[in-house]
Design goal:
The chain is an alpha+beta fold. The chain is built from eleven helices and 21 strands. α2 crosses α10 and α2 crosses α11. The protein is globular and about 60 Å long.
């Protein structure tokens, strides 16, 4: 397979950006924020600051086509690598899987091929030249669902722009029909706007009948998960990062409930294999050693993944990040001379809790919006095994907790 197998020959013209901002912020922002809240996206403004940018980014269709193909290809690569690692304790340790989860990973059956996670999101760096590089995969507890599934089609529709996100709800329903959860939960349900709203929207799109709880109101009693009224919960969808089972007081008890089959958790515990950035280092190592992957898989890895290692082997232009960092809080960039640059201070740094990987830096496109110039991070949801929805985030070189949501469509 040639190296142009994934690239669309009708890509953007040389020297032109694959992104364009359309529209201007409307003067009636508060009315629009209220409309979004009624639709289920209730955190367009956070702490009296604008999180949602009232403009829309248009992606060149040829770049989107390539991005979708890259997402399909790497989804298969990650699935294959996770299956390769399953049952191998040396690899669990290498990719940072907490020991509290090892028994669950060994004892519980792996989900079907391509379905280890049915609710996931790739985060991509798409450059001003249209080059596409994978930053990471959140295969366990991605947020941004309401922004992508509800607010993005609404924004795109106002500008006559195609939104590939319109099928997200139906794919969540397909996943929900397979899972059939009897409950859903997140930490701070009812008080944490983003996580609570994400749970509510997923429940709505999943069929609308699943009760939701605050994780802190749940307890494990002799291997049985119960709500605060004492009712048993058997099938739980949770926006709860599984690596925190190694830190939280109830982690061992929750692991026991999983191991004994008294509780089924969604995403599957095996999703933590995909979630770990250590898996990216494992994939890159297998790629360099010419092991495991077929020629077409190697083509996708070489074109779209970034060199990632467990040790700092780069001379410069790299980042270090926790294997389980989220919201940019654990990302530390280094310049061309290997000197540390200013890191994002907004997210929580998990680097002191989990091992670190080192990854070659990638270039994010810059986009001029009404409120200034931003770096643009491109998310691609993978729902029930299907790449299907764009999530735009505008921020700094490291798009962390302080980044803004901006709708993204295709033309």
């Amino acid at each position: 397979m040639s190296e142009d197998a994934f690239r669309n020959p009708n890509g953007p013209e040389s020297g032109t950006s694959p992104f364009e901002a359309v529209g201007r912020p409307r003067r009636n922002r508060q009315a629009r924020v209220e409309t979004l809240r009624e639709m289920g996206f209730g955190w367009a403004d956070l702490e009296k600051e604008p999180y949602w940018i009232d403009q829309t980014i248009v992606m060149d269709r040829s770049v989107y086509t390539e991005l979708e193909a890259a997402s399909c290809a790497l989804w298969g690569v990650f699935d294959k690598a996770a299956r390769f690692a399953t049952g191998k304790h040396d690899l669990y340790a290498m990719i940072g899987i907490p020991e509290v989860l090892w028994a669950s990973l060994d004892l519980l059956p792996l989900p079907d091929e391509g379905k280890i996670s049915r609710y996931a999101r790739f985060d991509w760096a798409v450059s001003d030249r249209g080059d596409i590089k994978l930053l990471e995969l959140n295969a366990d507890t991605p947020t941004g669902y309401a922004e992508a599934a509800v607010a993005t089609p609404w924004m795109c529709g106002q500008h006559g722009i195609h939104s590939p996100n319109e099928r997200m709800a139906s794919l969540v329903r397909e996943a929900w029909d397979v899972w059939q959860p009897d409950s859903a939960a997140c930490v701070g349900y009812g008080s944490h706007l983003e996580d609570s709203g994400t749970i509510d929207m997923l429940v709505r799109h999943g069929g609308g009948t699943t009760p939701a709880y605050d994780c802190l109101d749940l307890r494990v009693d002799h291997g049985v998960l119960k709500n605060k009224e004492g009712a048993e919960l058997r099938r739980l969808f949770a926006l709860y990062p599984k690596e925190w089972m190694s830190v939280d007081d109830g982690g061992d008890a929750l692991a026991y409930a999983l191991e004994t089959g008294r509780l089924t958790l969604f995403n599957s515990p095996h999703a933590i294999l995909l979630q770990s950035k250590g898996l990216q280092a494992l994939i890159w190592g297998l790629y360099e050693l010419h092991l495991l992957f077929l020629p077409e898989e190697r083509e996708a890895i070489g074109r779209y993944m970034l060199p990632t290692y467990n040790k700092a082997v780069f001379d410069g232009d790299f980042v270090s990040k926790s294997m389980f960092g989220r919201e940019g809080g654990s990302v530390s960039p280094f310049d061309s001379e290997g000197r540390p640059e200013l890191k994002d201070q907004g997210g929580f740094d998990t680097g002191r809790l989990f091992p670190t990987v080192y990854q070659k830096r990638a270039e994010l496109a810059r986009i001029r919006l009404a409120s200034g110039e931003f770096h643009l991070l491109t998310g691609m949801f993978v729902l029930n095994g299907t790449p299907c929805g764009l999530l735009g985030r505008a921020g700094g070189p490291i798009t962390g907790h302080a980044g803004h949501f901006v709708a993204m469509g295709v033309r």
